[in-house]
Amino acid sequence: MALEISGLKNVVCLSADTDGRDGSENNAGAFCDGLTHQRMAAGNVEIEEYLRAHNSWSAFDAVDDLFVTGPTGTNVNDFRAALVL
C-alpha cells in the first residue's frame, strides 16, 4: 500500500489485526501515508526487498509506523482503513 499511495498527501492507511497481534509479532499492524515510501528510502529501507521476503514488520519498524495495541482479547477479523481527505 505504501508504494501505491507514495507521493499522495491526502491519504492515510491502517492495516491491523483485531487481536492485537499481526502473526507472531508484537504489533497489531502498521500505518502508512503518502510519505512512508520516501521515509523508508531516506532510511535505506529497500521496500521491494522486504515485500519479496514477506517482511513488512522490519520495513515499518524502521520508520516507526507499527501500530501496537497489546492483546485486545478479541479476534474478530483483519481491519483495513483508508482515509482520503
Automatic annotation (TrEMBL):
InterPro entries referenced in this protein's UniProt entry, alphabetically: GK-like_C_sf, MOFRL, MOFRL_protein
Domain MOFRL span(s) in chain numbering: 2-78
Keywords: Kinase, Transferase
Protein name listed in UniProt: D-glycerate 2-kinase
EC number(s) given by UniProt: 2.7.1.165
GO MF term set: glycerate 2-kinase activity; glycerate kinase activity
Coiled-coil region: none
UniProt organism field: hydrothermal vent metagenome
Record's GO cellular component terms: cytoplasm
